[in-house]
Amino acid sequence: MNNEYDNTLFFDEYAKMERSTKGLAAAGEWHQLKPLFPPLHGKHVLDLGCGYGWHCKFSAEQGADKVLGIDLSRKMIEEAKKRNKESKIKYRVCGIEEYEYPENMWDCVISNLALHYIENIEQIFQKVYQTLKPNGIFLFNIEHPVFTAGVGQDWIYSEDGTPKYWPVDNYFLAGERKTHFLGYDVAKQHHTLTQILMGLLNNGFHLEAAEEARPPKEMMNAPGMEHELRRPMMLLVKSSAKK
């Protein structure tokens, strides 16, 4: 995750988001992501880019014996230790690319909205495969390629401020995209759907599920939520390590 999250002003804005204040209940994708989790009782779970630690806490609540949440942002880890502390959870300031990925260590590796900050995503797939036990599960949520290929990741608006359409450009040109998020310039990495799915298949994974996130009915009355049905924002992928 980029260092913008250690910028105090940016982090303060992030802390105001509903998913920051209310956790998984406020995450529009949670109703689809939750059923994709494998049984975790007695398992070892690694969370890449754990943020506030919501998924670490969920894993512990599901009976996981050992949970490690890593995040490049010191502020995120400090907040995780405050909000989602649990005896079976350890948090560590560490980038996804810097983690050592010991062989056959984890039963489940999860990552939520962090992999679109990684330039060489296939290298991470290789390392995750290495660190998973045989038949271990890799479950992640990444910004959808249609979203990351959006021009500035924003709508084209009519004169009255209504979103007209979502522009997509340079789809097949993977790499850095500059976006404006929470009032700050943020760099993300665009990966095509082929890169994501074939990157998994070419590195030993078996694809178990791929879903495009849609907000649940109970959230559709939230301001602007109807526009979330006009283009996909997130891609949920579950895969298993066949060894």
List keywords for this structure.
243 residues, alpha/beta, 7-stranded mixed β-sheet, two-stranded antiparallel ribbon, 11 strands
Please write out the topology.
Blueprint: H1 8-14, H2 18-21, H3 30-33, E1 44-48, H4 54-61, E2 66-71, H5 74-83, E3 89-93, E4 106-112, H6 121-131, E5 132-143, H7 145-148, E6 156-157, E7 163-165, E8 175-181, E9 184-190, H8 193-201, E10 205-212, E11 234-241
Parallel strand pairs: 1-2, 1-4, 2-3, 4-5
Antiparallel strand pairs: 5-11, 6-7, 8-9, 10-11
Would you kindly provide a written description of the structure presented here, covering whatever features stand out?
The protein has 243 residues and is of the alpha/beta class. It is built from eight helices and eleven strands. The protein has helices at residues 8-14, 18-21, 30-33, 54-61, 74-83, 121-131, 145-148, 193-201, and strands at 44-48, 66-71, 89-93, 106-112, 132-143, 156-157, 163-165, 175-181, 184-190, 205-212, 234-241. A seven-stranded mixed sheet has the order 3-2-1-4-5-11-10. It has a two-stranded antiparallel ribbon with strand order 6-7. It has a two-stranded antiparallel sheet with strand order 8-9. Strand 1 (44-48), helix 4 and strand 2 (66-71) form a beta-alpha-beta unit. The radius of gyration is 17 Å and the shape is globular. The chain starts with 7 loop residues before the first helix and ends with a strand. 37% of the residues are buried. The model has no long low-confidence stretch (mean pLDDT 94).
N- and C-termini, Cα separation? 29 Å
Residue runs with pLDDT of under 50 for 5 or more positions: none
| Strand content bin | 25-35%
Shape: globular
Strands, count: 11
Largest sheet: 7 strands, mixed
Alpha plus pi helix count: 8
Q: What is the C-alpha radius of gyration, as a whole number of Å? A: 17 Å
Structural class: alpha/beta
DSSP helix fraction: 10-25%
